[in-house]
Predict the structure.
Amino acid sequence: MLKQGSALDRYFKISERGSNFSREIRGGFATFFAMSYIVVLNPLILSGPDSSGGTLGFPAVAAVTALVAGILTILMGAWAKHPFALATGLGVNAFVAVTVATNPGLTWPDMMGLVVLSGVTMLILVLTGFRTAVFRAVPEGLKTAIVVGIGLFIALIGLVNAGFVRRIPDVAGTTVPVGLGFDGKLLGWPTLVFVIGLVLTIALVVRKVKGAILIGIITSTILSVILEFTLHIGPSFDGKNFNPQGWSLVAPKFTEWAAPDLSLIGKANPFGAFEHLGFVAATLLAFVILLSIFFDAMGTMVGLATEAGTIDKDGNIPNVDRVLQIDALGAIVGGGASVSSNQIYVESGAGIGEGARTGLASIVTGLLFLVAMFFTPLINLVPFEAVAPALVVVGFMMVSQVGKIDWQDWGIAIPAFLTFTLMPFTYSIANGLGAGFISFVLIRLVQGRAREVHPLMWVVAAAFLLFFGIGPIEAALGIH
């Protein structure tokens, strides 16, 4: 029996951080359920053929996605001692897939090789202290805005994943990108599962019931399984037909055991893109990947650490160097295993909302990913709609930090506003950070307070200007 004051308790500082073993275990499970969808979604995103007609293969991508996520998350827990889980980053994998699909001179090994190089560069920046220095140069007001932005982002992810909010096809040239349900109406049993789960989770959280978020997920999952097995609802898209009343991605079902296919490990070609695209084009692609993973992790860990209460009064995170080292390793290992860069997931907030405060929760999450590599019923039984309520509630908890921003200082208030609005509106943490950093530097310059801007903020703002201008730069250079 694990007790307060034991070696494990002292190592992870469980009691010191106001947690206990049961909270850490519950938190580990909650985080796993909240982000396990990536094992199914990542193979779908990386499923297209490259210029040679080669594909990565659904079973292989699924198996390695779970393996890499499990190893890195356990490492994060054991080494950095934070309740942060890692897996293939949404956004980076989409960029990788689109680039491979639209570039006739690129193969999957070539593109994954660029991810590896970006990770190596990132690791060098961490080991030299540059990445940590950038983190510490960010003003407190912007760090708070990052927390709020991630809260809004994670809530939007939950609402979209549940089908409560849906993208509107722009066939008629409409100016409204999203809307309520399908054609302005809430449809289908899956949406009802989300609504019931949300009401239940809110009620449990308000009543301060232990395990509120995990109870909400489990209850919603049981309801989902009952509905699917009795009504045969099916997924919203089965590869051919669209069903607006179906489950968002995973239709609850039991699956048979299958041995994991790990054949993708070591297939990346770090210098293939330079051979096929040329030095300039390949370097620009690597730069975009580097900036994305550089700032996504910084924003995410600030938000999660703040919510967990592990960030100190000066805005510093314990073991921040170790966190950043493992994040950089996530790009190297993820690219080397052909599943794209791995990064800290905002869905870790589900475990933190459940009470997780230490790395023990991450070890639990990581072990569950390793189990999922061999046996996937846990993943295939939990639809988005069952997890989405947890993300919405955690989003609320994070957005409540907005009162800490100094709204009288427009040099902070406007950049903060741009930061936390653009994160959900562009579906990207990095985009929100870029807008916030650039506007902070420019407004301080206009105010005649340029001396208050840390030199590294000028460097970061310049890098983001290059990041946002990558399209015109590629066009000017004739790169497609």
About this structure: The chain has a mean pLDDT of 88.
